[in-house]
Amino acid sequence: MGARLSVVMIAKNAAALLPDCLASVTWADEIVLLDSGSSDETVAIATAAGAKVFTDSHWQGYGIQRQRAQQQATGDYILMIDTDERVTPELAQAIRQVLESPDPQAVYSIARRNLFLGRFMRHSGWYPDRVTRLYARERYRYNDNQVHESLDAPGARVVPLQGDLLHLTCRDFAGFQRKQLSYATAWAQERHQKGKKVSVAGIFGHTLAAFCKTLILRAGVLDGRQGWLLAVVNAQYTFNKYTELWALNRGYTEK
């Protein structure tokens, strides 16, 4: 008998995305969803699909929220996904093979195919965009980062899995921009608390570097119009991060 799998996700107001996400993991032994205070049908949809639903609206960042969600799981292994992601059949098969012969000292990375303005990107740093999402529940957990959280697994052997995880990153550009701005704010606050400083020259240096890295070093130009647009978006996000940090460094914040 193989290891049991808990699919774990955190959510808020994800009713439009959740059905397809849940449908892609019906084969799992358990689905756990931690809701952070939805006002739409997120909880009802997850419950109807057979997921174990919990609520915790005391938001302290993505890392800690993922830790809380993992605490509700009972499987031997965790597959951590987001509501805007879908597990492809090829990836599901690769995960099943891991569960048949588990190695608790290994963690498993998954290639994400990211959607940006109607195109699944193949370059631009957005593919394969490997993320470590499959791991033994009792050995590993996520770090405390407010944003850009990652699995805390020092010394673990990272094994790449076959198959892609579809990520509907940017379906609605205005919504994507709002999310990016909130990430930039959280990033700046976290770095400011750790004593990080930045100058005006640093702001523009990081911004230009982000544009060139996406378009040239990561071959964004091969993604066509979306590659050029993503290079600008990444530069804008970088500009917002460092400008907000600069403002925090100097006390230019709302009292």
UniProtKB/TrEMBL annotation:
Name of the protein in question: Lipopolysaccharide biosynthesis protein
Molecular function, one GO term: transferase activity
UniProt keyword terms in alphabetical order: Transferase
Location of the Glycosyltransferase 2-like domain: 6-141
Family as reported in the entry's similarity comment: Belongs to the glycosyltransferase 2 family. WaaE/KdtX subfamily.
PANTHER family associated with the record: GLYCOSYLTRANSFERASE, POLY-BETA-1,6-N-ACETYL-D-GLUCOSAMINE SYNTHASE
Organism encoding this protein: Cronobacter condimenti 1330
Source species, domain of life: Bacteria
CDD domains, alphabetized: Beta4Glucosyltransferase (cd02511)
Xref: InterPro entries: Glyco_trans_2-like, Nucleotide-diphossugar_trans
Keyword Transport (UniProt): no
